[in-house]
Amino acid sequence: MEAVGGVLFSGIVLGGMYALVAMGLTLQYGVARIMNLAYGEFVVAAGFAALWLFTAAQVSPLLGLLLVMPAAFLLNLMIYRVLLLPLVRRARSPGALETDSILATFGLLFVVQGVLLAAFGGAYQNYSYLSVPIGLFGATVTANRLVALLFAAAIGTALWLWLARTRAGTAVRAVAVNPEAAQLVAIDVRRVAALAFAVGGAMVAAGGVLVSMFLTFNAAMGVVFTMKALVVVIMGGVGNLMGCLVAGLLLGLVETAVASWVDPGLTLAATYALFLFVLILRPAGLFGRPAR
Predict the structure, then answer these.
(1) Looking at the chain, which terminus has fewer C-beta neighbours within 10 angstroms, N or C?
(2) CB neighbours of residue 216 within 10 Å
(3) Is the pLDDT of residue 290 over 80?
(4) Could you tell me whether strands 133-136 and 139-142 are parallel, antiparallel, or unpaired per DSSP bridges?
(5) Is there a contact between 40 and 21 (Cβ–Cβ < 8 Å)?
(6) Do the domain assignments include residue 181?
């Protein structure tokens, strides 16, 4: 049986990655009102970008963040303006926009997945970066997991500071709370929604690069990341970054404990058990506000 310290650290690392990835989705869904079913495919795409940069160009994934995140920001901004903005303009209600975005991004899912399969094939891929054991608080961990956790914490903190301390971040939070009221104080809701969608895309790219440092992945596993991100967002409360952090850490700890001490085949069951338990106690999520 794995030591408690190792399980705790692995759970915190996994939970930190879940939280970072889910922060991007909570911006896209909680602010832009876009339910992006292709979200997980962009996690995988970022992982393949890091793999290619490392193996073909000898660029470390940490430096690769400086290339992949801006590229993902611009790509998601283009997707919003070309594919999603026409849906926003014609939608008569938030519910109609959500339905249309589900259909549009469901098609986008297969486009991205097909491109990845054509470029990299269907085999599982990984690469060795900082795969050296180190001792930490009595547990043995790999350096790449520790580095990934530290960078995830730094990126998540930077996002929180941007939302809390800048004018653009304040506008994003206002639109997330009440788009109609935001318009009354001269906030361009569509422009802010496009910004939030693009920033969410940059966050998911960061998560994909960091996850690729220690996980094996293939072109068809994006749906797993989409599912986990949705679970974290709903558990934490749609649009709430602190909720994403707490829910992500809870999910990572529970999955790691079950896989290490019970049976790896039960991790999915544990995920949904935790999800249902939280929603029974808090239907709006851990930090969500009940609808009135």
Answers:
(1) C
(2) 11
(3) no
(4) antiparallel
(5) no
(6) yes
Can you give the pLDDT at residue 195?
93
pLDDT band at 203 (very low <50, low <70, confident <90, very high): very high
Q: Does a structural domain hold residue 22?
A: yes
Average pLDDT over residues 91-115: 87
CATH of the domain at 169: 1.10.3470
Q: Is the pLDDT of residue 219 over 50?
A: yes
Q: For residue 292, what pLDDT is reported?
A: 46
DSSP state of 186: T
Could you tell me which residue, 44 or 240, shows the higher pLDDT? 44
Please give the tally of structural domains in the chain.
1
Q: Which residues contact 135 (CB under 8 A, 6 or more apart)?
A: none
Amino acid making up residue 150: L
Cα separation, 284 vs 50, in Å, equals 36
Q: Which domain holds residue 112?
A: 4-281
What are the beta bridge partners of residue 134? Answer: 141
**Closest listed residue to residue 204, CA positions, set 42, 19, 38, 14:** 42
Residue 268 tokens read as 């999915």
Task: Output the six-digit token pair for 162.
Answer: 């941007």
Q: How far is CA 78 from CA 2, 34, 50, 161, 197, in A?
A: 46, 14, 21, 25, 10
Unique residue bearing structure tokens 């994403």: 244
Question: Would 241 be classed as within a structural domain?
Answer: yes
